[in-house]
Specification:
InterPro entries: CBS_dom, CBS_dom_sf, Diverse_CBS-Domain. The chain has helices spanning 24-34, 53-59, 68-76, 80-83, 97-106, 127-136; strands spanning 18-19, 38-43, 46-52, 85-86, 91-92, 111-115, 121-126. The protein is α/β, with parallel strands linked by helices. The strands form 2 sheets. The protein has a 4-stranded mixed sheet with strand order 1-2-3-4. Strands 5-6-7 form a 3-stranded mixed sheet.
């Protein structure tokens, strides 16, 4: 298995990112519409946080998806900055896949924003990307 392959080879480059002023109901709609689980939060192209679909689900736990008005009321009670992970660990597009795998193995999250040398968002890498890379090796 190639160990020094840069994460830029497996990361998602066409990604959705949101600013801190995005409404939670809009963020939730992005999760549904694009069938994704993690969204970087940026200000002026710099990563300031990351939000997962689980972060959104937690605050609406117990409310039926059919009760859209109740969910919207709950989502309106929070700001994105209340539920996102602030200042997440990021990796550069040159970080090796091996190094990313080591980070995932030691942490309890499933995605990392990928930035360039100027700290601008370039993509996102997930544990699913890592598994798909591993499968392709065999």
């Amino acid at each position: 298995m190639k160990q020094r392959v840069p994460v830029s080879q497996i990361m998602a480059k066409a990604l959705i990112a949101v600013s801190t002023n995005k409404k939670l109901s809009e963020v939730n709609q992005l999760f549904i519409e694009y069938n994704i689980r993690h969204i970087p939060v940026v200000e002026a192209e710099t990563v300031v946080g990351i939000v997962s679909s689980n972060d959104i689900l937690k605050i609406g736990y117990g409310v039926s998806d059919l009760d859209k008005d109740a969910l919207d009321a709950i989502y309106d009670a929070y700001k994105l900055t209340d539920v996102m992970t602030k200042n997440p660990i990021v990796v550069t597009d040159e970080t090796s896949i091996k190094d990313v795998a080591e980070i995932f193995s030691k942490q309890q999250f499933h995605s990392l924003p990928v930035v360039n040398k100027d700290n601008e968002l370039q993509g996102i890498v997930t544990t699913t990307d890592m598994i798909n890379y591993l499968i392709a090796q065999y």
